[in-house]
Amino acid sequence: MTEPDSADDGWPIGAAAGFIDPVSMEDDPVELFAGDAGTLDADVRRVLVQLLRRKFLLAAKNPAQWRTLLENQQIIESRMHDLFVRLVVDHDRGVAYKQQVRSVELDVPILLKDDPYNRAETLVLVHLRTVFQRERGTGEMSARVDIEELEQTVLTYFDPKDHNVARGQQEVRNAVQRLVTEGLLTEESAGRYRITPMVEVVLSTAKLTELEQWLRGRNEAAA
Predict the structure, then answer these.
(1) Are 19 and 47 contacting, i.e. CB atoms less than 8 angstroms apart?
(2) If one looks up domain 119-222 in CATH, what number appears?
(3) DSSP 164
(4) Which InterPro entries has this protein been placed in (predicted)?
């Protein structure tokens, strides 16, 4: 009895001898750890984790990760969408960040929790955004501030009855440190900072106007 050796005889092609053509090992994803079922390269995974952990990914600060993001944007975006998180890539400012997807039609579990800025951080942001807008309006490509300038400006909005100046200064410095960590400020020398374009993303023009009006109202009421 002769064994069939073609698909015409009812056997799958390549199975004449009872074997299936092997899949090339080169086509298998690299296992990065025991039991790894992921399909992304290690560098792409690191960018995905960075986007989920941090508020922003800055091109100027992380050029290698920025290139990886742009080269793999579609798959990274897909992974984030699986978590109901939207990826925003701002090429003009060289920044990428995430947003929580919210919908009235769909039951969306909330992954990203709001981490609001406290009083000092908000006041520092308002001043930074004002300075950045003013400098850009004059044609300057960058804007800078000193810690002493920030302290003097921000402390004018604190309760005038609070005479603990040292505590207020420490609040301002803590606020500045958080904004440095988030990439809104870059310390160029001791006590001198460059304001990054991220301040425009965090504080829109409309929001800035709203906060400035509120602060003016507070000052007038206290006068």
Answers:
(1) no
(2) 1.10.10.2260
(3) -
(4) JetB
Q: Where are the domains of the chain?
A: 37-100, 119-222
Strand partners, 96: 57, 89
Show the DSSP H helices in the chain as ranges.
42-53, 63-71, 73-81, 119-137, 147-155, 165-181, 198-202, 205-222
Give tens-digit pLDDT for 71-102.
999 999 999 999 999 999 999 888 999 999 99
Find tokens 């304001």 and name the residue. Answer: 195
Q: Are the folds of 37-100 and 119-222 the same?
A: yes
Helix or strand or coil: residue 190?
coil
CATH of domain 37-100: 1.10.10
Please, what is the angle between helix 205-222 and helix 119-137, to 10°?
Answer: 120
pLDDT in tens, 155-199: 988 877 777 888 999 999 999 999 998 888 999 999 999 998 888
Measured between alpha carbons, how far apart are the two ends of the chain, in Å? 107
- Name the residue with tokens 């909005």: 157
Nearest-angstrom CA–CA distance, 125 and 162: 22
Distance CA 112, CA 117 (A): 15
Q: Are residues 65 and 47 in contact, defined by beta-carbon separation less than 8 angstroms?
A: yes
